[in-house]
Amino acid sequence: MSGSTGERAFGDIITSIRYWVIHSITIPPLFIAGWLFVSAGLAYDVFGSPRPNEYFTESRQGIPLITGRFDPLAQLNEFMQRLAIHGLAVPTVSFLGSISAMQFIQR
């Protein structure tokens, strides 16, 4: 090892009791939240996919089509446009504010 950045070695971290205490408390709720997300049916609602019992009904024996697949793409495009506008507007306003504030600085 040629130099030290002051970071702990990975082996030291995973053999630490503090590491296992923290992760034994935080990781199980993530699995429980994922299980509840899927078992409650929220995953089907969020992603718009049919539930297992809705694939083939008595009136429809064909493969169901998922509609509205391109709505998220339109929402993403709208978000990116707003982000680009705000990404330019906020620095411009702060720059103009700093320029106007510099005029009042006494020399």
Automatic annotation (TrEMBL):
- Write out the entry's keywords from A to Z: Chloroplast, Electron transport, Heme, Iron, Membrane, Metal-binding, Photosynthesis, Photosystem II, Plastid, Thylakoid, Transmembrane, Transmembrane helix, Transport
Q: Which residues form the Photosystem II cytochrome b559 alpha subunit lumenal region domain?
A: 42-79
* Cellular compartment(s): Membrane; Plastid, Chloroplast thylakoid membrane
A GO biological process of this protein is: photosynthetic electron transport chain
Select a single GO molecular function from the record's annotations and give it: metal ion binding
Describe the task this protein carries out: This b-type cytochrome is tightly associated with the reaction center of photosystem II (PSII). PSII is a light-driven water:plastoquinone oxidoreductase that uses light energy to abstract electrons from H(2)O, generating O(2) and a proton gradient subsequently used for ATP formation. It consists of a core antenna complex that captures photons, and an electron transfer chain that converts photonic excitation into a charge separation.
Q: What protein family is recorded?
A: Belongs to the PsbE/PsbF family.
The cross-references to PANTHER family, in alphabetical order and at most eight, read: CYTOCHROME B559 SUBUNIT ALPHA, CYTOCHROME B559 SUBUNIT BETA-RELATED
Name the record gives this protein? Cytochrome b559 subunit alpha
Species this chain originates from: Papaver nudicaule
Source taxonomy = Eukaryota, Viridiplantae, Streptophyta, Embryophyta, Tracheophyta
